[in-house]
């Protein structure tokens, strides 16, 4: 390859649960493939001396981000090189920012800013695997240092707390004094004050330090904590801010050097509490990848608990299963429960037309020849067609959904939509183009609206082109009554009509401003029908008819019919049935609901279609 490198290894591995609860997903750092970034010691960004060289990143799909690392000629870099060669340092870690992560702690996107040699990391598989000289080809965001080993703390990037302590406190001292030196300068009263002020600082508004973490979800400091924190010279037995690793709120590990920094800044800030809060605020500007806690993105939070929404209870579903968003289907029930059913699907309707003059009885004059009666026979045959609805469901999804019966829920939707489609086909047709593959053949299920004039009376309401709603409403009521003159259907029919037209009729007023019809029952009586049923699908339906050689557009206003005069026939096995099947190749369950039936009016002049025609100017 065109360029030498000193060692190589995994900067981070994908899909491994790190000790801080994070999981870096495949694809998180796709944009960094082939990018060269600095090689740093222990993520120390405070001095250029900490830059050891550079690392060339290579994404290996399904595995992780691999790094080819080269040392520079600095004294520290050469010392680190010897550590790597000797096997004293074996772990790598990445510093990334502009992180995007899920609520489950999955890192989905980020930008790697540097790779560091570290003593420990959060991802145990991010390690140096080739500590020898080889050759290779040559080849931006909110900070987060993502470690590949153990402990990490929230920073401009992901950082190890124990590494930070090691780098700052190599000999257990800072500024020439140890924690013990500082602590011994305080008398008992001052030490008690330190306990109290730190407790108030960590509990934000001075909440009682005796409250449990599980009850208040706050950091609680007691004297015993400090005894644990400092016991036995410079060795830290237990971090003051150590908490249950199961919690998922931001935490910060306080090292000896950090505590000395807080004390040193007290004179400038005016109080230990302000110094401590300033220290914590500095931490919140960075995102750390710690092996002990799961850290969230603090964003612009300046008070309270960052990511406090994590503490909120889970949302509870009110509607299980989910409620359907659907059209009003009350009219479907009216239609489907009223049609006449026969156990055979091929229906032949035959009629003898005796309305012509030739069918009339005749008077006889002696000596004349008697003439035989002549009348016309009419017939039509309606054959069945299949109407179906099909659905499928991955078996894995079926098993995983435990809150309700997903199969029963899907089947209820299939039956609901099948019934709606049949009811639509009975009244006005399915509305699809005649060439559409899914068209329900209108010679098999005959729509009432467009049926032959022998069965459906097409009554036209003529209005001016600029007629207002009140005029149309009044004329509709008159048409409903006048059209009944030729109606031959059985019983008292029902008026099916779009809701907005019903409202227009209900809003009609008399000459003194009173409503003419106070209820729908009063309006139904005025129209001469048993009741008025709103049908949403009637909205904006129209057809083109030829009248006296001229094409006219007629808008559907309503249909007056007794659905008992509409026959639906199905042979044995052709009624509505549900079928289940399992596709073993795709692990899918498939469901089919279908019917094979015919449908048609069986009585002449048994329906009335009210249509509106606006005269052109």
Short structural summary:
It is built from 15 helices and 27 strands. With 617 residues, it is an alpha+beta fold.
Write up what this structure looks like.
It contains 15 helices and 27 strands. With 617 residues, the protein is of the alpha+beta class. It has two domains: 1-315, no CATH class; 456-576 and 596-615, hypothetical protein PF0899 fold, CATH 3.30.2320. The strands form six sheets. Strands 2, 3, 4, 5, 6, 7, 8, 9, 11 and 14 form a ten-stranded mixed sheet that branches. Residues 132-174, 203-252 and 284-299 have low confidence and may be disordered.
> Any idea what the radius of gyration is?
42 Å
Number of helices: 15
Helix content: 10-25%
Average of pLDDT: 76
Biggest β-sheet description: 10 strands, mixed
What distance separates the N and C termini?
A: 85 Å
**Strand count:** 27
Give descriptors for this structure.
ten-stranded mixed sheet, 24% helix, alpha+beta
SSE map:
Layout: E1 3-5, E2 7-13, E3 23-24, E4 36-41, E5 51-60, E6 64-71, H1 75-86, E7 91-101, E8 106-118, E9 128-130, E10 134-136, E11 143-147, E12 153-154, E13 158-159, H2 161-168, H3 179-184, H4 188-202, H5 213-216, H6 223-229, H7 256-264, H8 266-269, H9 272-284, E14 287-288, H10 330-338, E15 340-342, E16 347-353, E17 376-382, E18 385-394, H11 395-400, H12 406-427, E19 456-464, H13 469-482, E20 494-497, H14 499-506, H15 520-527, E21 532-534, E22 542-547, E23 550-561, E24 566-569, E25 577-583, E26 588-601, E27 607-615
Parallel strand pairs: 3-8, 4-8, 11-14, 15-24, 19-27, 20-21
Antiparallel strand pairs: 1-10, 2-6, 2-9, 4-5, 5-6, 7-8, 7-11, 12-13, 16-17, 18-26, 20-23, 22-23, 23-27, 24-26, 25-26
Helix pairs in contact: 4-9, 7-9, 10-12, 13-14
